[in-house]
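User: Hi! I'm working on a homework problem where we have to compare a predicted structure to a textbook description. Could you give me the structure for the chain below?
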Amino acid sequence: MIQRHKARPDQARFFRRFLAFMLDNLIIMIIALIVFFSFSEIAAARRGERGEFSRMWSAIKNGESVVIGINKTHPPAEAETELGQDKKTFYIGGEKFNLISEFLIGYLYYILFFRFGGRTIGKRLLRLRVVDLEGRPRLGWYQSLERTHGYAASALLAFMGFLQVLWDHNGLAMHDKLAGTTVIRHKKESKGRL
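Assistant: Happy to help. Predicted structure tokens:
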């Protein structure tokens, strides 16, 4: 089942690619929280109310549980009592947060990093790089958008597009095929002595 052929001899394996992707998504979530809280506080201040961060901080001080970005809507209070929770749960998320994290921050993050260097922060930490299969020195704007949009397509149907790397005869995921790219192991650059 695991692929033996590769589009390039220095092509990265699935596990390293997966770890880099998970690191990138953690970074995107943190950036999205900062942006979401900032906009929420500014908008609430204009209305003379408390924003999401202020309300979350109060919930933490009161010993309430805090759930971030999990649910699209807040569950009803009856669901909490059925679960036997003594304390209230403060939910951060909903459609505004998902819009910010999944589209605005996620798309900008991936497009910009793919376009300028082919290395997201997660890929940089794991010494990986996205390259063009035809040998162009860097990805174009449209190619970076295709690869980023391909991530969304790869996530459909239980992430089968990502897992395709394991059985594809060239070791390419769905987003690699859409954009004409692959991920390689990036060699350490040796610095010459002066």
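For your comparison, note the following. Residues 14-185 form one domain. The longest helix spans residues 14-47. Good luck with the assignment!
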